[in-house]
TrEMBL record:
Belongs to the SWEET sugar transporter family. It holds the Pfam family MtN3_slv. InterPro entries: SWEET (IPR047664), SWEET_rpt (IPR004316). It is a multi-pass membrane protein. This is Bidirectional sugar transporter SWEET. The keyword Repeat applies. GO terms for molecular function: sugar transmembrane transporter activity. The keyword Repressor does not apply. It is found in: Endomembrane system. The chain crosses the membrane at residues 6-25, 46-65, 71-93, 102-123, 143-169.
Amino acid sequence: MVSAALVRTVIGIIGNVISFGLFFSPAPTFYRIIKKKSVEEFKPDPYIATVLNCAFWVFYGLPFVHPHSVLVVTINGVGLVFEFVYLTIFYIYATNKGRRKVLFLLGSEALFFAAVALITLLVLHGTHERSLVVGVLCDIFNIMMYVSPLTVLVSNGIGALSGLIQLILYACYCSYNNGENNGDGDDSVSIIVVKGKIELV
């Protein structure tokens, strides 16, 4: 009869293989960044969020937090290395503003992680309490990791709303202009696009 421990190990290995694919998936993006020597419009948010997620899962898998979690530590340790490589590439080819953002967010994450680690080790006693608290934090940061790519929707959403408002104003202006124009003179209006924004000329 198959033991529960064996099933757990097999499922854990399968999960690690899938997770490795997840961590490796941004590689083509960073190959493109290296090739073009520019981060273009890419944002570091998903990779910074993944650093925090992997760091907490590595901490969670340590023997004094949640024993017998070798698979958790190994795959998230690999993920942590991948993310630092990605962020290093991003930092090299980013603008000064982008570099400052990366350093600030990584520094903030390091301070937060250190604070949580100290509180966990000094205040919480026993692996049950530690694994419960750290496990909940891991789940929260895991959700943040998957949600972080959606930050691009904020700027795109604002741009779409701005474009919609401009189109409505243009439609209103055209209606007003047609009502006032008696056919004498040229009151035509042209539309041009400047840096993604619609302008009337």
